[in-house]
Amino acid sequence: MRRTVFYVSESTGITAETMGHSLLSQFEALDFQQVYMPHINTEARAHALVQRMQEAFDRDGARPIVFATMLDDRIRQVLRDGNCFYMELFEGFIEPLAVELGMAPSRQSGRSHAITKPSSYTKRIEAINFAMSNDDGIRPDNFDHADVVLIGVSRSGKTPTCLYLAMHYGLRSANYPLTEEDFDRDDVPPEVWASRRKLFALTIDPQRLQLIREERRPGSDYASLARCQLDTKRAQAIYRRLDVPVLNTTSQSIEEISSHIVKAIRNKID
């Protein structure tokens, strides 16, 4: 059964999308057609969206689901009156929080992702630039300037994890790919050893690795199951020598892997 889902906001819609995705992830059996509708900040735009909701109802034979973060009462009511299942994601939290804090909310849209702290924003931009400049072991001499260094075989998830750590946590992240040279000598360069306190190793199931590599280089030795099994086995031997935390990316998302890394870093600091 297909259901159309609208993520609606007066601003970017990032909060509605994030919270909506989290809720829908609990209903894997359904087919959700997702529609992103940011900047619904006038009644005219709201009425136009209501018409799209009706079209979705006529097509699906079921009410569309609307995840919204709308602070304007008039626009919100227009959407509520539409033929939809409407969920206002701020409504249940703003007023109780205002009572607890003893102050009225500003009710300004877009505050969740606005640049309210320029220094924090600048830190994230610098971290992203660092991750891009130190990808795939390009500058091992920069590892001493990194907050995190990831190590792993090719296609184990190092680059996307580094970028996520930079974008969401402002961490300067670098990574080092294990190569045939490393496997032949059963060791890593001195720069990697020197970074052990900030090093995290990524591992992955050989079957999953084969699927990923096959998409990149179909039919190659690089993508063969035997090669994937050998690479992951030799990588594990190096991880044991380094004695560093090992995270399995087979069934964990980038977000989950990153949260484990951040937690480990904070525990070291504490």
TrEMBL record:
Keywords: Kinase, Nucleotide-binding, Pyruvate, Serine/threonine-protein kinase, Transferase. One of its GO terms (molecular function) is transferase activity. It is an enzyme of class 2 (transferase). ADP binds at residues 152-159. Belongs to the pyruvate, phosphate/water dikinase regulatory protein family. PSRP subfamily. NCBIfam families: PRK05339.1. This is Putative phosphoenolpyruvate synthase regulatory protein. It comes from Thioalkalicoccus limnaeus.
